[in-house]
Amino acid sequence: MDTINIVCLNGEYLAAGEAAVPVGDEGLLYGMGLFETIRLYGGSPRLADLHLSRLADSAGRLGLGIPFKLPEIEEMLYRTAEKNGIEEGGLRLTLTAGSAQCRPSLLVQARVQAYGEEMYRDGIRVGFAPFSRNEKSPLVRHKTLNYFENIMARRLASASGWGEALFLNSAGKLAEGSVSNIFLVNRGRVIAPDGDSGLLPGITRRRVINVCVTLEIPLEERVVDPEELYRADECFVTNSLMGVMPVIALESSAVGDGKPGKVTRLLSSEMEKEV
Questions:
Q1: How far is it, in rounded angstroms, from Cα 59 to Cα 53?
Q2: Structural domains of the chain, count
Q3: Same domain? 68 vs 142
């Protein structure tokens, strides 16, 4: 079978084209469900326990059932990577809501690494999405299947030549990226939008904060005005697959000197040491 062609659906390993969920599943009909994206390193799902813990917490808060125990799901992650022969890349874990007629479904898919070395070396450009993030939504802190807004922002970013699109919240403050959390650095101090600004509390975001504490790098989690990005010395975005990605320009304006910054590189190096 072709590489990256085997998926795990409800504990069964199938060719991707053979996997299907019931047509009455409310995940399919209404986008009711959750997902996690987990980095594969050396064939092992990195920080799987944290991802599964977040999945279980969100499922509990949103009233979704999980049809397998967490250790069983972790085994599915390992076996899906093994069956696809993939060492470096990622796994997507999708949980659908099911319905009164069908139980929830759990799907694991493998993917190759999408971020090239040149992106880390040279940094990426970002820009602002033309619509805002609703920081008051009960879904904003959960990684749900209601992802069309994020996809629209990603398409805009691609069409504009950006590596990421950034959301402002309804108050006009910085929230997050379409698939990432955002940080800026000013005078050696790392600054991140706080949890009430309308963002997913990313696992890599939390790891960056922990590394800042360990290295005694000054850190602020607070409301961030978008204008601060133009005055920042450095900027970077994070998620579980990309790790720490330098940002060198905001649309047509350079961030700092237009090169990946010293603090960004330090944090990226420390994160890779953990891996």
A1: 10
A2: 2
A3: no
